[in-house]
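To: structure subgroup
Subject: Chain for Friday's discussion

All,

I'm putting the inputs and outputs inline so they're searchable in the archive.
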Amino acid sequence: MGDPGALPALRGRAFRPSPVLAVIAVVALLALPVAPGGDGGAGPADAASGLLVVLCAVLLLRARARPLSRTAVVVLGLPVGGLALAAVDAVSPGEGVAGLGRYLQIFVLVPAAVLLLIRDRRDFRLLAWAFVGLALWQGAIGVRQYATGTGASYQGEDVRAVGTFGTQDVMGMATVVSFGLVCAVGLALGRTGARERLGAGVCALVLLAPLALSFSRGAWIATTVTLTAQLALAGLRRALRVGAVVVAAGVVLVGGLGVGTAMLQERIDSISRVADAPDQSVTDRYTMWAAATGMWQRHPLTGVGLKGFPEYRDGHASLALSAGSDTEGAGAGYRKQPLLSPHNMYLLVLGEQGLAGVLCLVGCWLALLVLGLRGLWRARRRGAVPEGALIGCGLLLWQLVDFAYADIGGPSTVLTAVCFGLVARWALVDGEAYGPVGPAVPARPRPAPAGKAVVR
């Protein structure tokens, strides 16, 4: 059947377009601008991700195959149990169905479809480059917004880089650029060709500027942790060389060119003041974290139900919580953005889904992390670490760290689903191809005994 984690190859495959192009189309739709003043909900990319799942199902029915291993089915299906229980306890049946569909889209259906539509290592690299391309596009728009004063409002100036996502999803560009940066570093440190590694390295350095101008503390922390881990896993010598280049680029970017020096320095300093002298955004976040914890304490097993946080928030939040966050700029007027989530994925799951949801959903992520790291370790014992290992493990690590400061929501969330598809591809398929001593080598045919003809 060929690759056990992809759709079975059809005769004449070389003359057929790869099904991974459908996944790239979903990524490309995220380059379209979001209408100013919208609610930041589902967009064209979300609709395309639904078609992606349908396409994958049709191809599976045509092939009449069961391409996923039992381990993959169990790991990817693990969140379903906790989500079903939380949907039953939702505030209303409509909210339960909507929340269930959204979670299944992001963490089950789209990741499984992406895993199955990637045929081989070339498809994996092509999708990773699509992440890099989207990051460069959004980053270029973000840098232009900073330079021309047309970004989102930050400290009274319209300089915050948000790309095409606008004020409805101020974290969208930071997420996209971070994903592209992680993919670029993985490609630069992997086993690709010299030109491809050089190009990926240049892209990674270019993406540092828009990431800095996003003023997203959570994205900075998650990216720093992830890139450090990628460099360490790729080898100490290479880590030292690349680290020196990154530090030099940062000095030139911030010190030499003066890219947002004062604002960046103030934002960086605020990371160390979140406990001593937090600003209002940090105070709101702490208050919502406490509210989510209070919901879980009242409903420890199944939580308050999917999409129940806004309904129960005021009953568990203190008076320190503000009415909402002020947003304007990037083509939109002033708006008070309501605080409808705790901006912490783990606490959101704990409050709305309880222990059952945490064990199922977070258990799925941890299983992917363990399997991905095991595949990376086995591959490393055979020589250079493949780019798929660095990208897959890097994207998952970034997401797990960032989930401590953010949750799902907004148009960029569909990219998180595609990200989990790349992670699952490495952890459940490509990484599993490496046994305890490396990838399986096809057995050579035994020579026929002397005096006997070989029957063909």
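Points worth raising on Friday:
The chain has one domain: 13-278+329-435.
Confidence is low (pLDDT under 50) at residues 10-15, 438-444, 451-456.

D.
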